[in-house]
Write a structure and sequence with these properties.
Chain lengths: 908, 126, 66
């Protein structure tokens, strides 16, 4: 079986593995190849929520209270759906203000109040240390049980052991060493621990697999699956309605859910992994479902294990809290029980490490630093403050773990440890009103927050902590049963006569009532002051902008050397210089010394320091080297208002300038088009005048000749007069076409809707042009269908098109062997008419341009043939009738003009 | 003294009227219907003056003018441009290319005859 | 997390559905000592509702990527 050295060896091998992972994660982070920059790792690290209390305690709670373990996980599942705004806001605010703990968060929200941060830190330590003790106990107890296998001990009196042989002490010390190594390697402005996060994510996988392994064993190896197990349990009378009967009422079900939902937001370790260690806001997206999925998976087998344990150990007195470990042991599964032990170890160590780091940050930044700063007043010269801060943190880690150990040592086995998980939850839940309301309501003040916290914490201590002491025998039971001094109304767990509630529900109700009541009452008593109003805006409006923008509400005198010196003292020369140089580069300044000592620089220095020593202390430190002028509330509100307006404006401006750019581009295009149109109009005018001048020139010349010279021979006279008549006709044709085109283009044409039979129309058009054709002697070929081809359109206009195309064809056909052809055909729902000639054809470049005004023959200054308006007019007519017209041509082989019209209904 | 005048235009009616006017003024007339024909006739008949249209197929009047001036044999030939392009820019272009006179259609027959007369006598008008 | 406002609102919808399924009298309907296919109805209902909620949440945030 498992010997003690074997278990110890495996435990250390496991811790060594964790150590290696953390080391590797840190190295990768140093080389900027982060392993934790993954949404999955982020979601897994959140599972630090599942501690030994989950791993061992859920089964115990299931055995005792049915579904009593579930609200602890349903609460986080539900609130995770709200993370898209709630947690995002916390992350955004914390990143922009370099907030590194809950104490800092609350202090910062209410005007960077040192005292408030201190109170939060104290409450956190008092509330959480017992929880750490619970983890130590879980490790020590599971170790002892495993060691004593294969028999399953009914109970172990751990505390009877001498301190130096006490496993828990060594566990505490090893964990302290581990936490120091990875939690306080250096003082970082962002306070992120990538190696630790990698190790925590890994532990989350281990504990999940271990728990599921035990669950599968209990369900499928000890029994024949779920149905079989449930069946047997029912016959043995273990199966009850889970919620109502198991938990003694739905109000407890609801209260525990609310408690867990708050806890998952405000537990120091959850804040650490979810907010401080967050490397990318996008990771929240996956956490919204992956974290609840994890909780779901780790809970599926809780009830089966509890039932299997109850069936196996009926009557033996084995504690249900140990079923996860003792069930495999009782069935001689040595390796499985070792795996279960490692899983429990993962759950416990993960919690202890993260929680301790979070608490030590609070203790050092919010308790020790303010105290030291107040004592020094002025900075003691030459002290390496960075090292000092690190030493304070390391000391805090050791003290917190030893406090946990002491609590374990004195309270182990007593009542106080059994439900300490929920008691802890209730303690930290006191942070929720100040944190969550403060994210959405600007009116909260630091007095309100302080009052709420103190009253809530007081009620918590009175209704949960003191009774737990009484139950452990440290206080007289009379206090619990009859109230202090026999005042019944003040009985701690039936406060003001509110009896018959589960103690947690009772505490939650009263503490939240006093907490929120105090918070609202005092906040509404007086309006927020300058600092409170400033910070309120930064928190409440955090999501209004894509990137966090610090508002510089500072006016006064500062020296850059002193700010730099201050940062160097806390962060070390290299680190501070690097940060300042980067900041200088952003402001286009070469060296940090040349930075202007303005509000922006002071703000930068303060946030830089805030990462290392907390926002409240940072404010004090910066104030110690600068001379700040106090701004009035009006002034601050004005600046804030302006800033938010400016941000709104700048957003709008961006939008506007983008629109403007688009509009400019459009205008440019439009302008080009206008220029083109103008040019075309010019060309058109020039073409028109040219076309008018030519016949006019002939008319004038011959008129003058005839007028000047009456002696012109008669036949010449007749000839000249004939020319004058012809040119006059040409002139009027041209004028008519120009007017016609202008009319069509301006939309002044009255279009008629005739039913036109195209075959008939073509015959008519041929009749009109017959004389032209026979004069030139071209051969006509026609291919027209017999049946009617009816379209809807204007008969006269269509005739105009046909005549134009036909006369063009005749005109361009060669004098010898000239041939033209007309065909009419139907394709799908359109009629197609083509008119071809065997003339010179059209160059490919001109196929399109011939449909432009005066462009038909060829461009340039060569003389076009014809008026140059026939085709543009034809195109407009055809297009108006819903058809299209184009030309196909092979040069020197002739051209074919084709137009299509939609078939009218009559033709079908 | 009879001079030989080359009339170039793609409009037969214009050619006819100018030819009539020149003959009545006592000149010998040769004609061409486009730019290329004009250059050919020019080389063959060596006229004393050319009346040149601008918008013609196969080499327009501006191109013909350029070619004529580029050829040393004809570089001094008086050229009168007779064009329907009436814009000032076109008139300037014609003169810049070497035309000695530029008359816009429709033209006054008296002016045409007078200008031809001047050019043939060596009076340079622009 | 640059979620659209619509995604956020859908998630709030999931949250409200969760309240309805698990924290309203609907729960009492299924919190009974009966079984279905060998499973206690309350066990099946609680875990079924839970799975439904997280699947909806997953669809809401991951579905938008397409």
């Amino acid at each position: 079986m498992l010997t003690t050295p074997f278990i110890v060896l495996y435990s250390f091998l496991y811790l060594g593995l964790l150590f290696a992972i953390a080391y590797w994660g840190d190295r990768r982070a140093d080389r900027n190849r982060s392993v934790v920059a993954s949404p999955t790792v982020y979601a897994l690290s959140l599972a630090v929520y599942c501690t030994a209390w989950t791993f061992y305690g859920s089964v115990g709670r299931a055995a005792a209270t049915g579904a009593g373990f579930l609200p602890i996980y349903l609460g986080p599942t539900l609130i995770a759906a709200l993370w898209g705004t709630l947690l995002l806001k916390m992350v955004r605010v914390s990143k922009s203000q370099r907030i590194t703990s809950i104490a800092d968060f609350i202090a910062s929200r209410y005007g960077k109040s040192q005292r408030l941060g201190g109170v939060v830190a104290v409450i956190a330590v008092i509330g959480v240390v017992p929880y750490i003790a619970l983890q130590l106990k879980a490790i020590a107890r599971s170790f002892t049980i495993l060691q004593s296998g294969p028999e399953v001990q009914t109970d172990t009196l751990l505390t009877t052991m001498p301190v130096l042989q006490d496993t828990a002490l060594y566990v505490a010390l090893v964990l302290a060493a581990f936490t120091i190594l990875f939690g306080t390697r250096h003082l970082d402005a962002s306070e992120r621990h990538e190696g630790m996060v990698a190790a925590i994510a890994f532990e989350s996988i281990v504990k999940l697999l271990a728990f599921i392994a035990v669950g599968v064993f209990a369900t499928y190896f000890l029994h024949d699956g779920f149905a079989d197990l449930f069946n047997k349990a029912e016959r043995a009378g273990y199966l009850n309605p889970l919620v109502g009967e198991g938990m003694g009422g739905y109000e407890n079900w609801f209260a525990l859910t609310l408690l867990a939902a708050l806890a998952v937001m405000v537990l120091p370790r959850q804040f650490q992994v979810a907010v401080v260690e967050n490397s990318d806001e996008d990771h929240l997206r996956r956490a919204v479902w992956m974290f609840p999925l994890y909780l779901f998976l780790i809970n599926i087998f809780v009830i089966p294990i509890a039932l299997a344990g109850q069936l196996s150990f009926a009557g033996t007195g084995v504690d249900a809290d140990t079923f996860v470990l003792t069930l495999p042991m009782a069935h001689d599964q040595a390796m499985l029980s070792l795996f279960a032990f490692i899983g429990g170890l993962s759950a416990a160590t993960g919690m202890v490490i993260v929680e301790t780091i979070a608490l030590s940050t609070m203790v050092s930044n919010n308790l020790v630093m303010p105290f030291l700063l107040r004592r020094w007043k002025r900075l003691p010269p030459d002290a390496d403050l960075g090292q000092l801060v690190l030493r304070i943190r390391r000391g805090a880690i050791i003290v917190i773990l030893l406090l946990g150990y002491l609590y374990f040592r004195f309270a182990s086995g007593a009542y106080a440890l059994v439900s300490i998980g929920l008691i802890s939850f209730a303690a930290v839940a006191q942070f929720a009103p100040a944190m969550i309301i403060g994210l959405y309501w600007r009116g909260g003040t630091h007095r309100g927050a302080m009052a709420g916290l103190l009253m809530g914490f007081g009620v918590w201590a009175y209704t949960l902590l003191l009774p737990s002491f009484a139950k452990s025998g440290w206080l007289p039971m009379d206090f619990l049963l009859y109230g202090p001094f026999g005042i019944e109304l003040l009985r701690p767990q039936a406060l003001f006569g509110l009896d018959g509630m589960n103690e947690i529900t009772h505490c939650l109700f009263w503490s939240m009532t006093f907490n929120i009541g105090g918070y609202l009452f005092l906040s509404l008593w007086r309006p927020p002051n300058v600092h409170e109003a400033t910070q309120a805006t930064l928190f409440v409006d955090a999501l209004k902008h894509e990137r966090p923008i610090g508002i510089r509400l500072w006016r006064g005198k500062a020296e850059i050397k002193q700010l730099l010196g201050l940062a160097e003292r806390f962060l070390g020369n290299a680190r501070a210089r690097r940060a300042f140089t980067a900041f200088a580069a952003r402001r286009d300044v070469q060296v940090p010394e040349d930075l202007p000592a303005d509000a922006e620089t002071v703000h930068f220095a303060e946030t830089l320091l805030a990462g290392a020593i907390g926002s409240a202390s940072a404010r004090v430190m910066v104030a110690s080297v600068t001379a700040e002028e106090t701004l009035g509330l009006d002034e601050v509100l004005h600046i804030l208002d302006e800033a938010s307006q400016i941000r709104a404006y700048s957003h709008e401006l961006e939008q506007k300038s983008r629109e403007l750019e688009a509009a400019t581009a459009e205008l440019k295009t439009a302008n080009e088009q206008l220029k083109e149109i103008d040019r075309m109009k010019d060309d058109f005018m020039s073409s028109v005048t040219h076309e008018l001048r030519t016949p006019l020139a002939s008319i004038r010349a011959f008129s003058e000749i005839l007028y000047d010279d009456p002696k012109v021979a008669l036949d010449e006279r007749r000839r000249f007069l004939g020319i004058i008549v012809d040119e006059t006709n040409r002139l009027s044709r041209l004028v008519n076409q120009v007017l016609d085109l202008a009319k069509i283009e301006s939309g002044h044409v009255q279009w008629r809707d005739d039913a036109v039979d195209l075959g008939v129309l073509i015959e008519q058009a041929l009749a009109v042009t017959e004389q032209l054709i026979s004069e030139k002697g071209v051969r006509l070929e026609r291919a027209l269908p017999e049946n009617p081809c009816v379209v809807t359109g204007d008969t006269d206009r269509l005739m105009q098109v046909l005549v134009n195309l036909l006369s063009n064809a005749v005109k361009y056909a060669p004098d010898r062997d000239g041939r033209i052809g007309v065909t009419l055909s139907r394709s799908k729902d359109r009629y197609r008419i083509s008119v071809r000639d065997n003339g010179p054809g059209i160059a490919p470049a001109d196929l399109e341009s011939i449909f432009e005004k005066f462009r038909q023959a060829s461009g340039g200054e060569d003389k076009p043939i014809g008026t140059g308006l026939g085709l543009p007019i034809s195109r407009r007519i055809v297009e108006h009738l819903g058809g299209r017209i184009w030309v196909e041509s092979v040069e020197r082989k002739g051209a074919t003009f084709i137009f299509e019209l939609p078939a009218g209904r009559e033709g079908d | 003294m009879s001079k030989k005048v080359l009339v170039v235009d793609d409009e037969p009616n214009i050619v006819l009227s100018v030819e009539f006017l020149m003959k009545r003024a006592g000149h010998e007339v040769v004609t061409a219907g486009d730019g290329e024909e004009a250059l050919r006739v020019l080389a063959e008949t060596k006229p004393d003056l050319m009346i040149l249209d601008v918008m013609m197929p196969r080499k327009n009047g501006f191109e013909v003018c350029t070619d004529v001036r580029a050829n040393p044999e004809t570089a001094d030939l008086p050229i009168l441009m007779l064009s329907a392009k009436g814009r000032e820019a076109e008139r300037e272009k014609g003169l810049a290319l070497g035309a000695n006179a530029y008359i816009t259609k429709p033209f006054s027959t008296h002016e045409l005859v007078a200008r031809v007369d001047e050019l043939l006598r060596g009076v340079i008008h622009t | 997390m640059r979620q659209s406002a619509l995604t956020r609102q859908r998630l709030v919808g999931v949250f409200v559905l969760g309240l309805l399924l698990l924290y309203s009298p609907v729960l009492a309907l299924f919190d009974v000592a009966a079984e279905w296919a060998g499973f206690p109805v309350s066990y099946l209902y609680l875990f079924g509702a839970w799975l439904l909620l997280l699947l909806l949440a997953a669809l809401t945030v991951e579905g938008g990527k397409q």
